């Protein structure tokens, strides 16, 4: 299986490592590839769009001709995990002219919603589909403002959606790739039902891989 990580900017290697570990947990051998130009996404089964700066990422995916390929990937029903800036880039509207969003996720976004007083913080968040809270790492994080009917909210923080799912897209305002916990990558890419899984992520990954 081939997984592409949009590598314009941001925490690319962390996503690649998390995807490989998530694959291992499901007995799937995943090859990861960094994407900086067009022509690679069509060969990918899975796609991650990392955090970083959504202005830069959105500009580059358009300039490099990657944007229509991401659209085709989603329209083909292939999984995408988008984190933080990735969430902003996929949204319908980031309410900021500097971000040319792809309008693949029926949601509007508040960029930097948590404001300067709390640019970054960690907090455990409950996520639909996970038994135990997920260690949320929020870095100048956005929140989801309005969502369309087809969007499921998987997690909220202070009453605001911070993880959503629509079709093949799972998008988070926080950064699962910056933790050792690969449950979000497993949910996004391997359609795992981890809701009844009470083990710690590490133990859990080891056990499943050993089966
Ligand atoms: N950690 C992040 O990805 C921050 C995203 C940033 N707030 C933006 O608008 O692009």
TrEMBL record:
Molecular functions (GO terms): glutaminase activity; pyridoxal 5'-phosphate synthase (glutamine hydrolysing) activity
A GO biological-process term: L-glutamine catabolic process
Annotated InterPro entries: Class_I_gatase-like, PdxT/SNO
Catalytic residue list: 84 (nucleophile), 175 (charge relay system), 177 (charge relay system)
PROSITE patterns per UniProt: GATASE_TYPE_1 (PS51273), PDXT_SNO_2 (PS51130)
Catalytic activity line of the entry: aldehydo-D-ribose 5-phosphate + D-glyceraldehyde 3-phosphate + L-glutamine = pyridoxal 5'-phosphate + L-glutamate + phosphate + 3 H2O + H(+); L-glutamine + H2O = L-glutamate + NH4(+)
EC number: 4.3.3.6, 3.5.1.2
Family: Belongs to the glutaminase PdxT/SNO family.
Oligomer and partners: In the presence of PdxS, forms a dodecamer of heterodimers. Only shows activity in the heterodimer.
Record protein name field: Pyridoxal 5'-phosphate synthase subunit PdxT
Natural source organism: Halalkaliarchaeum desulfuricum
Lineage: Archaea, Methanobacteriati, Methanobacteriota, Stenosarchaea group, Halobacteria
Gene: pdxT
């Amino acid at each position: 299986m081939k997984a592409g990580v949009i590598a314009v900017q941001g925490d690319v290697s962390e996503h690649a490592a998390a995807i490989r570990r998530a694959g291992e947990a499901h007995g799937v051998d995943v090859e990861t590839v960094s994407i900086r130009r067009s022509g690679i996404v069509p060969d990918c089964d899975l796609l991650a769009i990392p955090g970083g700066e959504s202005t830069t990422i959105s500009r580059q995916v358009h300039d490099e001709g990657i944007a229509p390929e991401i659209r085709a990937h989603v329209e083909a029903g292939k999984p995408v995990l988008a984190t933080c800036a990735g969430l902003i880039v996929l949204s319908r509207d980031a309410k900021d002219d500097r971000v040319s969003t792809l309008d693949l996720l029926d949601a509007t976004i508040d960029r930097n919603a948590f404001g300067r007083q709390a640019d970054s913080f960690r907090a455990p968040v409950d996520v639909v589909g996970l038994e135990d809270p997920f260690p949320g790492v929020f870095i100048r994080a956005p929140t989801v403002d309005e969502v369309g009917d087809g969007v499921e909210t998987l997690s909220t923080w202070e009453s605001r959606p911070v993880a959503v799912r629509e079709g093949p897209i799972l998008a988070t305002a926080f950064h699962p790739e910056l933790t050792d916990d690969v449950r979000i990558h497993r949910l996004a890419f391997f359609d795992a039902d981890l809701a009844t899984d009470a083990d710690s992520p590490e133990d859990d990954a080891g056990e499943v891989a050993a089966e």
